[in-house]
Automatic annotation (TrEMBL):
UniProt keywords, alphabetically: Coiled coil
The protein's name in its UniProt record: F-box only protein 28 like protein
Pfam families registered for this protein in UniProt: F-box
Residue stretches making up the F-box domain: 1-48
A biological-process GO annotation: protein polyubiquitination
Organism, scientific name: Argiope bruennichi
Coiled-coil annotated residue ranges, if any: 218-252
Entries under SMART domains matching the protein: FBOX
Gene3D superfamilies assigned: 1.20.1280.50
Length: 325
């Protein structure tokens, strides 16, 4: 039994003991090894993304929230290095993932994956790392060369192709079985496999359409929630303003009541009669021989009474607005 007759999972396990650079070089051996190596490289890119996200999450959870305090924190350099690695991963993803999803290629630069893992292990194990540009110099050189070579030499040929084959998913191939099984199938089985693969494609398309519709619906609901939150905050501001206005008017009303009480008290002292009586004599003479008529008392009290009525009207309007809101 030769090496090529082993299942794909066993071959992937064997290739996992070597570096990704060596895996990318093993693609030249034969088609079977090329197929398995592609799966290993694609899976390695997704693994390094998850590992980087985990490291960045751990570092950010230990940093303070204030930006000024973060710069002085011992983990500031760790965060700078991880954010720089994040930008490199996003650039690599934009360069390769489009063609990987179309099954036109795999993640070709395995040496870049090895360098990213090296940087991440250095950041997690080192308590006081050096500056970011010193750590990431090799990674920047390798990734930039890989992206330039891919854009100039490889991707132009891929753009001419229109009908991509079945996707190579990291871990399991959805539409195609392993090559060892292909050699044993008859022509009748191959036609059945073609029909089943067509059904799988239709199901995947329908699932993608449903997922897209659900995402649009979620975005619409998020927008509606944002609008409702804005309107709610505006109403709260209006209620707060009306409450402040009501408080100021009540204070003014209290002041007017105090002034009116003082005026009543002075009138009672001078005239000896309460000004609130409905029937008053035409003239009243006090002890100091000053004559105060009822009309003069009413004339003195009218401005304060008018102000009091105005304040009450404003308070009633404010209460009505608050009830409506």
């Amino acid at each position: 039994m030769s090496l090529l007759h082993l299942p794909d999972d066993v071959l992937e396990k064997i290739l996992s003991y070597i570096s990704y650079d060596e895996v990318s070089r093993c693609r030249l051996v034969c088609r079977r090894i090329n197929y398995v190596s592609k799966r290993v490289l694609n899976r390695g890119f997704h693994k390094v993304e998850r590992y980087h996200a985990q490291c960045l999450r751990q570092v950010k959870s230990q940093l303070p929230r204030r930006e000024s305090e973060r710069r002085k924190h011992p983990l500031a350099r760790h965060c700078d290095i991880l954010t720089a690695v994040e930008t490199r991963l996003s650039l690599l993803g934009m360069t390769f993932m489009k063609f990987i999803e179309m099954n036109l290629c795999c993640f070709i630069p395995g040496k870049v994956l090895d360098e990213i893992y090296k940087v991440l292990r250095y950041v997690t194990n080192e308590q006081s790392p050096v500056r970011a540009h010193e750590v990431l110099q090799e990674l920047r050189d390798l990734s930039s060369m890989a992206m330039e070579h891919f854009d100039e030499k490889i991707s132009p040929a891929f753009r001419k192709r229109k009908d991509p084959g079945p996707k190579i998913v990291t871990g399991i191939s959805i539409f195609a079985p392993s090559l060892s099984h292909h050699s044993k199938l008859t022509s009748r089985h191959s036609s059945n496999d073609h029909k089943s693969s067509h059904k799988w494609k239709e199901e995947v398309k329908s699932m993608a359409q449903k997922q897209l519709a659900s995402r649009k619906e979620i975005q619409f609901l998020k927008q509606r929630i944002g609008e409702m939150n804005k309107s709610h905050s505006e109403l709260e501001k209006k209620v707060f303003e009306l409450q402040n206005l009501l408080a100021t008017h009540t204070e003014k009303l209290k002041e007017q009541d105090l002034k009116l009480g003082v005026v009543h008290h002075l009138v009672e002292i001078k005239t000896g009669v309460s000004p609130t009586m409905d029937v008053l004599p035409p003239t009243v003479t006090s002890d100091d021989t000053t004559t105060v008529t009822v009309t003069e008392v009413k004339a003195n009290l009218q401005p304060s009474i008018k102000k009091r009525r105005q304040v009450r009207r404003i308070n009633d309007r404010c209460r009505k607005r608050l009830k409506k809101n």
